[in-house]
């Protein structure tokens, strides 16, 4: 079994030397708080979910549009008055003397 630096009793800040890796950062008070927020939060999200994957949602939207249009037309046809049911009814005429209706 290989003995690790932790088993040797070293602290986590002094486990070993790593050469050639550098990390530069800005202090928290020097950074812009919302740098790139709108671009990352809105533009990238919309691009990744809607524009790049149009082939997933566009056919469904087109089918839903035509299906809704068909349902509205069928509903209109089903609930409209059918003229052939009212063909034998006369046109009501208003009398000049009273409120009685006279059918012809």
TrEMBL record:
Alphabetized Pfam families for the sequence: UcrQ
Main location: mitochondrion
Keyword Transferase: no
SUPFAM superfamilies reported in the protein's UniProt record: Ubiquinone-binding protein QP-C of cytochrome bc1 complex (Ubiquinol-cytochrome c reductase)
Topology term for the membrane: Single-pass membrane protein
Localisation: Mitochondrion inner membrane
InterPro entries in the record: Cyt_bc1_su8, Cyt_bc1_su8_sf
Claim: Mitochondrion is one of the keywords in the record: yes
Keywords carried by this UniProt record: Electron transport, Membrane, Mitochondrion, Mitochondrion inner membrane, Respiratory chain, Transmembrane, Transmembrane helix, Transport
One GO term of the biological process aspect: mitochondrial electron transport, ubiquinol to cytochrome c
Gene Ontology cellular component list: mitochondrial inner membrane; respiratory chain complex III
PANTHER family (UniProt xref): CYTOCHROME B-C1 COMPLEX SUBUNIT 8 (PTHR12119:SF2), UBIQUINOL-CYTOCHROME C REDUCTASE COMPLEX UBIQUINONE-BINDING PROTEIN QP-C (PTHR12119)
Family according to the record: Belongs to the UQCRQ/QCR8 family.
Function statement: Component of the ubiquinol-cytochrome c oxidoreductase, a multisubunit transmembrane complex that is part of the mitochondrial electron transport chain which drives oxidative phosphorylation. The complex plays an important role in the uptake of multiple carbon sources present in different host niches.
Complexes and interactors: Component of the ubiquinol-cytochrome c oxidoreductase (cytochrome b-c1 complex, complex III, CIII), a multisubunit enzyme composed of 11 subunits. The complex is composed of 3 respiratory subunits cytochrome b, cytochrome c1 and Rieske protein UQCRFS1, 2 core protein subunits UQCRC1/QCR1 and UQCRC2/QCR2, and 6 low-molecular weight protein subunits UQCRH/QCR6, UQCRB/QCR7, UQCRQ/QCR8, UQCR10/QCR9, UQCR11/QCR10 and subunit 9, the cleavage product of Rieske protein UQCRFS1.
Name this polypeptide is given: Cytochrome b-c1 complex subunit 8
Organism the protein comes from: Thelazia callipaeda (Oriental eyeworm)
């Amino acid at each position: 079994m290989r003995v690790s630096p932790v088993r040797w009793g070293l602290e986590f800040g002094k486990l070993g030397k790593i050469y050639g890796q550098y990390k530069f950062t800005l202090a928290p008070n020097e950074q812009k708080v919302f740098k790139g927020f709108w671009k990352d939060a809105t533009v990238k999200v919309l691009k990744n979910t809607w524009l790049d994957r149009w082939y997933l949602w566009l056919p469904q939207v087109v089918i839903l549009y035509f299906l809704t249009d068909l349902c509205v037309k069928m509903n209109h046809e089903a609930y409209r008055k059918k003229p052939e049911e009212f063909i034998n009814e006369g046109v009501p005429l208003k009398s000049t003397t009273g409120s009685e209706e006279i059918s012809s």
